[in-house]
Amino acid sequence: RALGLKRAGVRKALHDPFAEDALVLYEPPALSTHELIKAEKEKLPVHVVVDPVLGKVLRPHQREGVKFLW
């Protein structure tokens, strides 16, 4: 694993934003089919999700704090 190198592939969230107890910090706006076709694939916004291992152990007030700081 080399630092500073961009991984090739499709842009997507690192963790499943639709999983139970997922801590989603940012949800991109819904785009129409036309906007998806016209948009550059490297610049599409993606979900920002906290690692599930960390999200499971955070208490409710800590989850709110993480969202606030993000």
From TrEMBL:
Please name the InterPro entries in this protein's record: SNF2-like_sf
Top-level division of the source organism's lineage = Eukaryota
> What name is this protein filed under?
RAD54-like
